[in-house]
C-alpha cells in the first residue's frame, strides 16, 4: 500500500519534469533558429532589427483609414495595412454572418424551390476555390464601363471600373456627439431591458420597454442634434473626366475582396446554422406550436437560443478562416498588411522582421476573435447544477 501511494505521489512530479524539459527544448530550438538567422544575415551584410520601421517608406497606398503619405515611416505604412486588413475582416464577418444565417434558415424552408436554390448556392460556392472566385469578381469589376459611361442606377450612385461611388453625410463634430449620444442610449436601453425582464420573471408582470428605448435612442440624440445644430447635408459624388470626386468610392479591389469573402464564407456559415437548427429537438417546436406561437416567434425564442450552443464553436473557426483568408488580397492588388509588408520587404530586405510582423498581426487578430467568441459561448452555455 505504501509503495502504491509513493508511486502515485511521484506522478505529478514526473509530469512537471517532462513539461519543463519540453519547454527547455522549445526555447532551445527557437534560440538556435534566431541565432542561425542572425549569423546568416550578418554573413551577407544584411542589417537586422526593427530600426528600419522609423525610416521613410516611400510607398504609395491608395486606400487608408488614417492620414498617410509616402513620406511617412514604414511603421505607419504597416499600421495602415493592418487597419485595412481589420476593416475588410470586420465587414466580411458581419455581412457573411447575416447572409449565411438567412441562407441557412432558407435551406430548411417548406418552399421546395427556395430550399433547393439555397442548397445549390451552398454546394456551388463552397466547392469553388476562394482565390478563383476573387479573380472572377475582380475581372467582372474591371470590365465595367469607365467613369464617363458609369452605370447610374439611382440618384447619387455610380458604378464604374473605378468602383462603387455613393453619397455620404458631410460629417462634422456635432455628428460625432450625436453618434455618441445614440451609442450611450443604446447601452442604457439594453441594460434597462434586461432589468425589466428580470423583474418580470420575478413578479410575472409585463413591463413595456419601448418608452425608455424611444427616450434614450431617439429623443436624446435628437436633442443633441437640435442643440448643436448638426446639418444633414450630403456630400454627393460627381463624375469627372477620369475619376469621381466627392462622396465615398469603394475601390474595385476592396469590393471584389469583400464580396468574395462574404459569398464564399456565407456558404459555410449557412451549413453551420442549418445543422444548429436541426440539432434542436423537434418536440420543442411542436410544443411551441401547441402553445400558439407563430413560426417566426418559435424560431426567435425557442430554436435559435438553443441552436446557438451548437452554432458558436464552429462559427468561431469560420471567423478565424475568414480573417486569415483576407491575406489573399495581395492577389488582386488590395493593400493589406501582407501586400504592404511584401513591398517593404522588396525595398529593404528585412524579410525576417516583416514576416514576424505579419505573423504577429494575424496571431493577434485570431486570438482576439477566439477570446470574444469564447466569452460569448461561455455566456450562452448551459449551467449544470
Could you walk me through the main structural features you see in this protein, from its secondary elements to its overall organization?
Its main location: membrane. One of its GO terms (molecular function) is transmembrane transporter activity. Belongs to the binding-protein-dependent transport system permease family. HisMQ subfamily. It is a multi-pass membrane protein. InterPro entries: AA_ABC_transptr_permease_3TM (IPR010065), ArtM/GltK/GlnP/TcyL/YhdX-like (IPR043429), MetI-like (IPR000515), MetI-like_sf (IPR035906). The protein has 385 residues and is mainly α. The protein folds into two domains: 2-46; 74-170 and 233-380, MetI-like fold. Helices cover 68% and strands 5% of the residues. It is built from eleven helices and seven strands. It has helices at residues 2-43, 74-106, 112-127, 130-142, 173-203, 210-228, 252-278, 282-290, 295-325, 337-348, 351-380, and strands at residues 158-160, 163-166, 168-169, 234-235, 238-239, 244-245, 248-250. The strands form three sheets. A three-stranded antiparallel β-sheet has the order 1-2-7. A two-stranded antiparallel ribbon has the order 3-4. A hairpin with a 4-residue loop joins strand 5 and strand 6 (244-245). Helix 8 (282-290) packs antiparallel against helix 9 and helix 9 packs antiparallel against helix 11. The protein starts with a helix and ends in a 5-residue tail after the last helix. The mean pLDDT is 85.
Amino acid at each position: 500500500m505504501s509503495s502504491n501511494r509513493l508511486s502515485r505521489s511521484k506522478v505529478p512530479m514526473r509530469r512537471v519534469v517532462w513539461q519543463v524539459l519540453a519547454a527547455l527544448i522549445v526555447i532551445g530550438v527557437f534560440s538556435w533558429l534566431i541565432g542561425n538567422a542572425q549569423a546568416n544575415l550578418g554573413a551577407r551584410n544584411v542589417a537586422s532589427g526593427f530600426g528600419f520601421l522609423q525610416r521613410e517608406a516611400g510607398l504609395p497606398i491608395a486606400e487608408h483609414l488614417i492620414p498617410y503619405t509616402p513620406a511617412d515611416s514604414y511603421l505607419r505604412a504597416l499600421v495602415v495595412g493592418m487597419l485595412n486588413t481589420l476593416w475588410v475582416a470586420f465587414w466580411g464577418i458581419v455581412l457573411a454572418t447575416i447572409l449565411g444565417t438567412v441562407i441557412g434558415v432558407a435551406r430548411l424552408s417548406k418552399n421546395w424551390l427556395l430550399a433547393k436554390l439555397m442548397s445549390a448556392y451552398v454546394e456551388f460556392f463552397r466547392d469553388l476555390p476562394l482565390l478563383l472566385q476573387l479573380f472572377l469578381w475582380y475581372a467582372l469589376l474591371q470590365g465595367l464601363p469607365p467613369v464617363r459611361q458609369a452605370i447610374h442606377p439611382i440618384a447619387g450612385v455610380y458604378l464604374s471600373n473605378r468602383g462603387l461611388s455613393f453619397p455620404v453625410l458631410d460629417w462634422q463634430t456635432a455628428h460625432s456627439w450625436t453618434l455618441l449620444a445614440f451609442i450611450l442610449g443604446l447601452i442604457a436601453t439594453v441594460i434597462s431591458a434586461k432589468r425589466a425582464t428580470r423583474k418580470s420573471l420575478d413578479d410575472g408582470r409585463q413591463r413595456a420597454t419601448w418608452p425608455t428605448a424611444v427616450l434614450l435612442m431617439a429623443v436624446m440624440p435628437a436633442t443633441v442634434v437640435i442643440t448643436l445644430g448638426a446639418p444633414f447635408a450630403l456630400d454627393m459624388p460627381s463624375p469627372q473626366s477620369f475619376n469621381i470626386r466627392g462622396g465615398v468610392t469603394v475601390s474595385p479591389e476592396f469590393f471584389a475582396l469583400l464580396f468574395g469573402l462574404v459569398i464564399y464564407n456565407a456558404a459555410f456559415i449557412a451549413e453551420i446554422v442549418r445543422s444548429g437548427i436541426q440539432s434542436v429537438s423537434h418536440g420543442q417546436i411542436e410544443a411551441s406550436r401547441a402553445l400558439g406561437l407563430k413560426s417566426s416567434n418559435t424560431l426567435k425564442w425557442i430554436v435559435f437560443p438553443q441552436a446557438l450552443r451548437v452554432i458558436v464553436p464552429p462559427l468561431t473557426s469560420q471567423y478565424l478562416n475568414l480573417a486569415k483568408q483576407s491575406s489573399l488580397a495581395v492577389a488582386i492588388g488590395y493593400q493589406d498588411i501582407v501586400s504592404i509588408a511584401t513591398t517593404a520587404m522588396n525595398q529593404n530586405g528585412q524579410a525576417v522582421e516583416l514576416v514576424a510582423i505579419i505573423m504577429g498581426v494575424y496571431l493577434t487578430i485570431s486570438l482576439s476573435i477566439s477570446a470574444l467568441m469564447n466569452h460569448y459561448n461561455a455566456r450562452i452555455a448551459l449551467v449544470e447544477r
